[in-house]
User: Fold this.
Amino acid sequence: MSVEERLQDVKARIGKMERQAGRSQGSVTLVAVSKTFDAEQIRPVIAAGQRVFGENRVQESQGKWPELKAETPDIDLHLIGPLQSNKAADAVKLFDVIETVDREKIARALADEMNKQGKAPRLYVQVNTGLEPQKAGIEPKRTASFVDFCRDELGLSIEGLMCIPPAEENPGPHFALLAKLAKQCGLERLSMGMSGDFETAVEFGATSVRVGSAIFGAR
Assistant:
């Protein structure tokens, strides 16, 4: 299959799950994860109509996305990998959405940079639903107080929650937990589900799914 065919296949599978889950068509946004792929490999996906992309690293993104965004100004670029505070300025400058806000230091750095640059990327709080020590994200029990801190102390508008369930576990309970936490926080946006489990995520209420290898092929 070509990359264009794989893109259409993923979109069709999302549409099918929307119907099965009784959700309105188009309620789930596809974030095409283009990490490790260069501009030449991304351009055919843009040409096929995809406009929302996800990247893991700020530095890698700086090497390809300023040019691609200049060519196609309506690109919506998401940072979906861990963010270091020393990269906050670059992240605010380049990304439209930052999905990995997970600690006070990062939240403060982003608030400072957003004020400085006069830019307001949309923000998600990443939750470590599996309490994995090697993985970024805030503990589930601290999510509500952290969202309150971002809103009340820093004046940040949080759009939704994001999670990456443990690879070896059934993702369903993790998606259900994220949906429950979002409800507690009064948030409607849920970024969850990747190439192997995005259909399950749609079933559990994902509003965006992050799909890489099912579109671009193996890295």
